[in-house]
Structure formats: structure tokens, C-alpha cells
Write a structure and sequence with these properties.
The structure holds two protein chains of two kinds. By secondary structure, chain A is mainly beta. The longest helix of chain A is centred in the middle third of the chain and has 7 residues. In chain B, strands 1, 2, 3, 4, 5, 6, 7 and 8 form an eight-stranded antiparallel sheet that branches. The chains are: A mainly beta, B alpha+beta. At the A-B interface, α1, β2 and β3 of A face α1 and β1 of B.
Chain lengths: 50, 152
């Protein structure tokens, strides 16, 4: 089982955030998605690949 | 809830991940599902094709994502079922939830570094036993009131 951890991920659209989770079997949120002007910031998320 | 960090992008991402068949874990907040889920504990959600009585459903509501116990299912004539859900805390009230609001079910909670199963047969049995004990306690209190003698 492989996993990757992203402390900060800046995306211009929700689809970019979802693209990061492509092929994940499990996603663990340590923080939450937050809006900033013109961008979305995903904090402390981990994706686990089966 | 137990409710969840309610930002719109969070709700959208969780909805999409579950619809893709992905498991999701995040920290729950609120006290309505005590003692099964306590505020600040991490819950694991799995996508499901069918929700059954006793499951803890995660569903979308105007106030965000909610995880409550399914206490009733109404099957309309040829229509999609409607689920009656309720938290386990005494102050919690029932809520009718449409099938399309339901995203998945809570299968585990992390407490003191351990994962506790919430989706299996034993978990539901524990819930039923606790519900029965609570009902018996209420009946006991009523009877003691009828006879004018309280528990002391």
C-alpha cells in the first residue's frame, strides 16, 4: 500500500484537487479545504493507494 | 452530528471521492452521536450501494455533512426510499433524509489510537443493547413515577 502526503496543495479549480486524488483507494483529511482569493488550498491530506 | 468541517469545497470533494468508490477519513465534530462517536474523533466512511437499518449514514444537508443513525426506512410505492435518521444523544431529533442525500456509511471510529468497527454485526448489536437499556431505564423511571417512589 503506497501513500503520499500533501501538507499544502494549491489549485485553481476543484477539478485540480480531485485530480490529485485520482486512483486513491482512501483519502485521509487532517485539515480541511480552505478558500483563498483565486485559489483553493488543501491542507494536510493523504491519499492511500491500494 | 456529528458534523464535519462544513466548507463547500470539502463537501464537494468528499461527495466526489465517495461516488468514485474511495474510502474517506476525517475528523468529526459535535456531540449528537455520543457515545458512539465523540467530537474530535476520526471517522472512516465507505461508499455503499444500500443503506440498512442501524447503519450510520453520512449525508448532505444544508448545514454540511451529517453522520446519524438510520432508525427507520420508508419505502414508497416505486419511489426511492426515505431514511429516518437520528443522533444517539438524548437531545437529538429525527430527520428525514432522501436517498440521493446519502453519500456513504460510517464504518469505523478511531479512539485512543485504536480503530473501532461501527459497520459490522457486533457494532449494531452493541447499539441495540444500549438502546434497549436506555428504553428500559425510561420505563423504569415512568413506573417509579406512577407509584410515587423515585430511585434513591
Amino acid at each position: 500500500m503506497a501513500s503520499s502526503f500533501v501538507p499544502f496543495y494549491i489549485a485553481s479549480a476543484l477539478n485540480d484537487v480531485l485530480a490529485f486524488f485520482e486512483h486513491a483507494s482512501e483519502v485521509v483529511f487532517r485539515g480541511e479545504l480552505r478558500f483563498a482569493p483565486g485559489e483553493r488550498v488543501l491542507e494536510f491530506a493523504q491519499k492511500v493507494l491500494a | 452530528m456529528n458534523s464535519v468541517p462544513g466548507s463547500r469545497p470539502f463537501v464537494d470533494v468528499v461527495t466526489e471521492l465517495l461516488s468514485r468508490g474511495c474510502r474517506v477519513r476525517f475528523r468529526a465534530e459535535g456531540a449528537s452521536m455520543r457515545p458512539t462517536i465523540r467530537g474530535g474523533e476520526t471517522i472512516t466512511i465507505e461508499p455503499v450501494s444500500e443503506i440498512k437499518m442501524g447503519d450510520i449514514a453520512l449525508y448532505r444537508a444544508d448545514r454540511g455533512l451529517i453522520a446519524h443513525r438510520v432508525v427507520g426506512i420508508r419505502n414508497g410505492n416505486g419511489k426511492a426510499p426515505v431514511f429516518l435518521t437520528r443522533g444517539e444523544a438524548a437531545s437529538s431529533t429525527e430527520e428525514a433524509v432522501e436517498e440521493q442525500q446519502v453519500l456513504g456509511k460510517v464504518v469505523a471510529v478511531e479512539r485512543n489510537g485504536q480503530s473501532i468497527d461501527l459497520g459490522g454485526r457486533w457494532a449494531k448489536l452493541r447499539y441495540r443493547a444500549r438502546s434497549f437499556a436506555r428504553s428500559a431505564g425510561r420505563w423504569g423511571a415512568r413506573l417509579s413515577g406512577v407509584h410515587g417512589a423515585g430511585w434513591r
